[in-house]
Amino acid sequence: MDGLPVHPSFGMTTTQDIKDLFKRFASYMTIIYFQGKDELHYYAVPVVLVCLFAFFIAHCFLTIYEVWFAMLRSILKVLAS
To answer: What is the pTM of this model?
Structure first.
């Protein structure tokens, strides 16, 4: 898969970049949320679990998008020839 279609002036954006961005955002929000909890002293395990879950969800959505985009590109290639 070639990744997401973007305008050339924005550079190459891949689905892995989007997954990493989503995972980082989820981890930052989780750390901020758990820092406010006084009764929780060690919050590495919940942060890791949230990061894994966020990566899994992003992977599911972007894999479906990649398959759809590859199918559309192959259909257009067949129609053009």
So the answer is: 0.61
